[in-house]
Design a protein that fits this description.
The chain is of the alpha+beta class and 517 residues long. It folds into 2 domains: 1-103 and 385-418, Uridine Diphospho-n-acetylenolpyruvylglucosamine Reductase, domain 2; 114-384 and 419-516, Orthogonal Bundle (Cytochrome p450), CATH 1.10.630. It has helices at 2-21, 43-46, 52-63, 84-93, 121-131, 137-163, 171-188, 201-210, 214-225, 240-260, 267-276, 290-293, 304-335, 337-351, 361-364, 368-380, 414-418, 463-480; strands at 68-73, 76-81, 168-170, 386-390, 395-396, 403-404, 409-413, 481-485, 511-516. The protein has a 4-stranded mixed beta sheet. The longest helix has 32 residues, at 304-335. Its cofactor is heme.
Length: 517
């Protein structure tokens, strides 16, 4: 009898505790979903049944008539922002209230966590100002020859393979190897040849970071559920061997360049300038930004650990964004022959004017239709499908009685906005023409709804370089080759995404046929 009473009491306590924890949003006058025991509203996410992008997109689709909706991922309360005008306020107008991300940062235990994407507050502001001059059009143009050389390696590789009679390629791995070559050269100052050497050590290390395995999925999930516990559980952003590899590569590169007085037009050289003088030298013809002029701490120098962290995040962001964007572009062009032909015609028209030095940086800027193809790809497949911010104070939503409490995590479902039929007509249709006369694809909404790189002061700092890399890869392929899907079942269906990844990663391999034009 006593056992039964204790059991009933325990059940009652658990029930009441659940009711209390799952009333966090309703008590604040915010509409919430109907959470279930333990999982809250996040069962599909926690059990890896849905990708993070699809999970938040589905919430958006069901509740887009609300301005904001309360959600529980297990027992963690988060807010999903479903109103484009409120997104605009959060990312731009009231950015000072929402400038941080709820990411785990402990630079003592995990130095590589102290990179631009993670850190917040004044430290983020100072670092953003320092790094912004490294991504000016002038600096990117100076890096162009490095990227162009990697493009030539890709071109020669495809030529050689086709000459051998190979006509089917798995493009997910090939585009990963192409981008590793570019990013390792630009970010770390190291030339390698992952294109011709699929088992190159750099490729193996990148696979540990990016491959959609269970460990990477758990890291992303714990970051979402309990960022403050991340380092208390002695978890790290990277496996120890990968972290040691990154530290070793950057340290050796910095030491070599400083000892040999060697310089190169790449991101690593600009980081070395920040280490030695606290600011990036302005090239002839470039001007300091007003932000840089008015900043009081522009000449404080970066430490070696800070350089390593920034090189790492540049590698991660540049690799994942560019390789996935390239892959999705190739997929859509392979199944839309008429669009592929338009790209080829534009490439032919621009490239026929190239001189003995080949295609120039300025010539790539003339590929306007190809730019639309990339923009439309990022609309349909935003690589970062959710943007997250933290409120650093209580915030009253305009024209409402709703107050977002200090410390709340806000999730902005970019994939939901990008695929909303009320914003984009026939959103699953791949239609580059949407962007011919509009920077947001002529979306029928007021506010911010096209955010492949985020928006506002904390948007992606390297988006221009990412687009350049994608343009080079696409223009090289379609200047010489035709592409078609090898798996005809993929012709009319929509892609499924891997549930173990924070970014939008396809769950299937991409075998495609290639032939000379």
């Amino acid at each position: 009898m006593a056992f039964v009473l204790i059991l009933l009491l325990a059940i009652a306590v658990v029930y009441l505790l659940n009711q209390y924890l799952f009333s966090y949003w309703s008590k604040r006058g915010i509409k919430q979903l109907e959470p279930s025991f333990f999982y809250g509203d996040g069962g599909d996410l926690i059990k890896f049944k849905k990708s993070m992008g699809e999970f938040f997109k589905d919430i958006y689709s069901k509740h887009k008539n609300e301005r904001i909706v309360g959600v529980y991922i297990s027992y963690k309360p988060v807010l999903v922002v479903t109103d484009p005008k409120l997104v605009q306020d959060i990312l731009i107008r009231d950015f000072t209230t929402f400038h941080d991300r709820p990411m785990p940062v402990d630079e003592n235990k995990d130095p590589i966590s102290g990179h631009l994407f993670n850190i917040g507050g004044q430290k983020w502001r100072d670092l953003r100002v320092k790094l912004s001059p490294t991504f000016t059009s002038g600096k990117i143009k100076a890096m162009y020859p490095i990227i162009k050389n990697v493009g030539k390696v890709l071109e020669d590789y495809l030529d050689e393979q086709v000459n051998k009679g190979v006509n089917v390629f798995e493009f997910r791995d090939l585009m990963a190897r192409f981008n590793i070559n570019i990013i390792s050269s630009v970010a770390f100052g190291i030339d390698n040849d992952c294109i011709n050497e699929p088992k190159h050590f750099f490729r193996q290390m990148s696979a540990k970071i990016f491959d959609p395995n269970l460990m990477n999925g758990l890291r992303a999930l714990i970051t979402l559920l309990a960022p403050t516990l991340f380092h208390k559980l002695n978890m790290r952003i990277l496996d120890r061997d990968v972290e040691d590899f990154i530290f070793s590569v950057v340290k050796q590169t910095v030491e070599y360049r400083e000892q040999k007085n060697f310089s190169r037009n790449d991101f690593m050289q600009l980081l070395i300038q920040l280490k030695n003088q606290g600011y990036v030298s302005v090239d002839k013809g470039e001007k300091d930004s007003e932000e840089m002029k008015n900043h009081s701490d522009t000449k404080s120098k970066l430490t070696l650990n800070e350089i390593i962290a920034q090189a790492f995040v540049f590698f991660v962001a540049g690799f994942e964004t560019s390789s996935s964007t390239l892959l999705y572009c190739l997929f859509e062009l392979a199944r839309h022959k008429e669009i592929q032909q338009k790209v080829q015609q534009e490439v032919d028209k621009v490239f026929k004017t190239s001189g003995p030095d080949g295609v120039t940086y300025d010539m790539l800027s003339e590929l306007k239709y190809l730019e639309c193809v990339i923009d439309e790809t990022l609309r349909k497949y935003p690589i970062l499908p959710v943007h997250v911010r933290t409120a650093n104070r209580d915030y009253k939503i305009a024209d409402s009685n709703i107050v977002i409490p200090k410390g709340a995590s806000l999730w902005i479902p970019a994939l939901g906005f990008h695929r909303d039929p009320d914003i984009y007509e026939n959103p699953l249709e791949f239609k580059p023409e949407r962007f011919l006369n509009s920077s947001n694809g002529d979306g029928k909404a007021t506010g911010v709804f096209y955010t492949p790189f985020g928006d506002g002061p904390r948007n992606c700092i390297g988006m221009r370089l990412g687009k350049l890399t994608t343009k080079i890869g696409l223009s090289i392929i379609f200047s010489k080759f035709n592409l078609e899907l090898n798996d005809k079942e993929m012709q009319d269906g929509e892609l499924k995404f891997h549930p173990n990844q924070f970014v939008l990663t396809p769950s299937k391999l991409f075998n495609m046929k290639i032939s000379r034009r």
